[in-house]
């Protein structure tokens, strides 16, 4: 079997896409289409890098949300800082390989972490990747001693790094520190891979359920405390032999972006800084996050960052929108509705806790002049109220006398509930830049395909 089967998922010609789209106005394009605002995305990326630098922690960028080379580069910034990534699929790592090689040839430290405990069939492809990069550049997660025993010989021979995945409450992957199997797992992994043991990893995915800055900060602190407890299981003799500090890597977009609140002088920020400074004396602390460059309605609903400031978490900080066309109007129904040219395959069927719809229509293009639905306010405006596979029903919420009717053939933009799922229905992103013209295509970014 070809160890890198990316040829099975060929990408479209970028040159052809650019000929089709560059300079075109959004209102003239076929729908559905997915649009990224480069200015907003870059601002979100810069804010994350900035807070990590100010806190003195590392950052590992997850690429699963967007699956593009261009945005991956924005996530790690320019210069000679570390370029460390997380992937959810092997094809993401394989498509990152040329950039990782470029970084390493220029003396820039770079690595990739396969962000789920790997299935056994993944090992040959991971070994192939590892053979192309400097030793220890490819890393995996382990949370089960039997799975580790099946692959341990290959990991050692392939010089693949290992993190132990800790379940800090999300109950997806990971081992609980309270498990009777945890001490044995730590001893086995550390004793087998030695210097290739990297540390402990936690994904605080249940932070999406939070609804405030306080909730997100609590999650961030809880994660760090949990990994500190996990690290205490590693023998101090081994710690003294390590050439580098053991890594504690924590995050999910709500908790990682909440780190930006920790630069304030609040009591919660002071608690966090005290904990962080203590941990940094012994460990290397690292944040990781994925959807933060794009954001979406689920992220806005966490209210993980204050409204004020350049890093505020509002609908205006969402960098992804889906372009739809109005196909039909139903003004004789109980409340005004319209048929739009995108359904669950373009928007996803991911709910959002802050409202009952599947996307919120922005105040641009064909919806210009209408009030935009405010899920925390008077809940008046157009939303995607229902979805089928290929079409959606826009519904007007609130008093009808405040509505400006939509027109058949007009285009609207929608903030989706979940950016990762919305993007998955498309082969490429159309790029606009709101610092220049938010409705003219200035670039095209091709998405990677396959697993």
Q: How many DSSP helices? A: 14
Portion of residues within helices: 25-40%
Low-confidence stretches: 206-211
Structural domain tally: 2
Indicate the overall shape.
Answer: globular
How much is the average pLDDT?
91
Please tally the β strands and state the result: 17
Main beta-sheet strand count, sense and barrel state: 9 strands, mixed
Alpha-carbon distance between the two ends: 15 Å
Map the helices and strands.
Layout: H1 14-21, E1 33-37, H2 38-55, E2 58-62, H3 69-76, E3 83-87, H4 90-105, E4 110-114, H5 123-132, E5 138-142, H6 145-157, E6 161-166, H7 182-193, E7 197-202, H8 213-231, H9 236-241, E8 247-250, H10 253-258, H11 267-280, E9 284-289, H12 297-302, E10 320-330, E11 337-340, H13 344-347, E12 359-361, E13 381-387, E14 392-397, E15 411-416, H14 419-423, E16 428-432, E17 443-446
Parallel strand pairs: 1-16, 2-3, 2-9, 3-4, 4-5, 5-6, 6-7, 7-8, 8-9
Antiparallel strand pairs: 1-10, 10-11, 10-15, 11-14, 12-15, 13-14, 16-17
Helix pairs in contact: 2-3, 4-5, 6-7, 8-11
């Amino acid at each position: 079997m070809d160890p890198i089967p990316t040829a099975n998922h060929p990408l479209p010609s970028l040159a052809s896409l650019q000929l089709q789209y560059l300079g075109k106005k959004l209102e003239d394009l076929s729908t559905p289409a997915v649009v990224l605002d480069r200015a907003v995305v870059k601002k979100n990326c810069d804010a994350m890098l900035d807070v990590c630098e100010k806190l003195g922690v590392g950052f590992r960028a997850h690429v699963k949300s967007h699956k593009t080379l261009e945005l991956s580069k924005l996530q790690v910034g320019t210069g000679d800082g570390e370029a460390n990534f997380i992937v959810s699929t092997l094809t993401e790592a394989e498509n990152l390989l040329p950039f990782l090689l470029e970084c390493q040839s220029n003396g820039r430290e770079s690595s990739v972490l396969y962000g789920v405990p790997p299935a056994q069939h993944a090992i040959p492809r991971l070994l192939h990747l590892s053979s192309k990069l400097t030793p220890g550049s490819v890393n995996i997660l382990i949370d089960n001693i039997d799975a580790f025993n099946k692959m341990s010989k290959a990991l050692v021979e392939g010089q693949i790094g290992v993190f132990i995945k800790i379940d800090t409450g999300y109950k997806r992957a990971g081992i609980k520190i309270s498990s009777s199997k945890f001490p044995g797992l730590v001893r086995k992994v550390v004793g087998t891979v030695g210097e290739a043991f990297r540390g402990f990893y936690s994904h605080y995915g249940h932070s999406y359920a939070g609804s405030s800055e306080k909730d997100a900060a609590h999650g961030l602190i809880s994660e760090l405390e949990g990994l500190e407890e996990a690290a205490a299981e590693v023998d101090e003799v081994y710690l003294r032999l390590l050439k580098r500090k053991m890594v504690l890597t924590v995050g999910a977009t709500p908790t990682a972006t909440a780190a930006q609140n920790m630069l304030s002088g609040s009591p919660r920020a002071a608690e966090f800084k005290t904990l962080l400074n203590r941990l940094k004396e012994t460990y290397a602390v690292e944040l990781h996050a994925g959807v933060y460059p794009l954001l979406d309605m689920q992220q806005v609903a966490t209210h993980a960052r204050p409204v004020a400031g350049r890093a505020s978490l509002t609908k205006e900080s969402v960098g992804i929108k889906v372009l739809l066309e109005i196909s039909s109007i139903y003004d004789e129904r109980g409340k005004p509705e319209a048929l739009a040219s995108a359904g669950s395959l373009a928007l996803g069927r991911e709910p959002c806790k802050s409202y009952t719809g599947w996307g919120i229509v922005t105040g641009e293009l064909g919806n210009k002049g209408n009030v935009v639905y405010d899920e925390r306010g008077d809940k008046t405006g157009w939303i995607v109220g229902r979805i089928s596979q290929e079409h959606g029903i826009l519904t007007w919420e609130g008093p009808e006398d405040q509505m400006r009717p939509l027109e058949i053939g007009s285009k609207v933009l929608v903030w989706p509930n979940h950016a990762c799922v919305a993007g998955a229905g498309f082969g490429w992103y159309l790029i606009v830049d709101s610092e220049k013209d938010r409705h003219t295509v200035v670039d095209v970014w091709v998405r990677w395909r396959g697993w």
